[in-house]
């Protein structure tokens, strides 16, 4: 294969040496029991947590949010306001934690970077002909390099779903490897790479599992469900399968990879369901913004309303916080 990635497990390294070997490996993964996966996800979604745990969960979920705007009408003023909100989600409460990152198009990276300054909130940029992924590789790489040079800490790339569904696994693998290389910086502080599958277009849970392993073997730092532009976006069963994949990948290689569900997660109740699933499926090591994120815009407002309710005993109302 033209691409290479550093895989500590010799068996996995062998699986990436040729198109045929990669196909054998991916199609040799255990099939997903659709009924079982959906039943387990539904069961985990009914778990309740105690009040003290809920307070912790709300703050953790806020710290995991990639506050996102990916619209053609985005302006410098809009993304500056979003960056300010990410740093101080509740200006009236200094104990409220900051969000994890602000996610924007590459042309807005410099504006967000300047606004965030040394706050510690990351800048994430979508790249590689987001959201379709339908562009020549040199264009995808230029898109990535532009975002990294502008100061992006994280790159959210999309895979070519058409190539994946056609069984061109080598092409998808090589593109991920190439984008990973384009995330490099001279100072060694490389941008982290999140690989988006657009699970709503992958058709089967087996394909979600295969895409997860393919991306991790190619060097993904995170695997991400969706662009938020296609429905269905993030779902509990899909995220369950991806969490199983990162858990199994670490068991086999010793390497941790993060997970980011994105699109359609709008309420604190939903976020807590995901956190319960992370803990039960992957384990508590993933209950950290370094290893789990929510791609969202409206979720943060509901988290803030629920947090205020627990602090003051009353809802602040949706108009209390800025709308995104």
TrEMBL record:
Gene3D superfamilies: Aldolase class I (3.20.20.70). It catalyses: 2-deoxy-D-ribose 5-phosphate = D-glyceraldehyde 3-phosphate + acetaldehyde. GO terms for biological process: carbohydrate catabolic process; deoxyribonucleotide catabolic process. Keywords: Lyase, Schiff base. It holds the Pfam family DeoC. One of its GO terms (cellular component) is cytoplasm. InterPro entries: Aldolase_TIM (IPR013785), DeoC (IPR011343), DeoC/FbaB/LacD_aldolase (IPR002915). Its EC number is 4.1.2.4. It comes from the Bacteria. One of its GO terms (molecular function) is deoxyribose-phosphate aldolase activity. It is an enzyme of class 4 (lyase). Coiled coil: none annotated. Pathway: Carbohydrate degradation; 2-deoxy-D-ribose 1-phosphate degradation; D-glyceraldehyde 3-phosphate and acetaldehyde from 2-deoxy-alpha-D-ribose 1-phosphate: step 2/2. Belongs to the DeoC/FbaB aldolase family. DeoC type 2 subfamily. This is Deoxyribose-phosphate aldolase. It comes from Nocardioides soli. The lineage of its organism: Bacteria, Bacillati, Actinomycetota, Actinomycetes, Propionibacteriales.
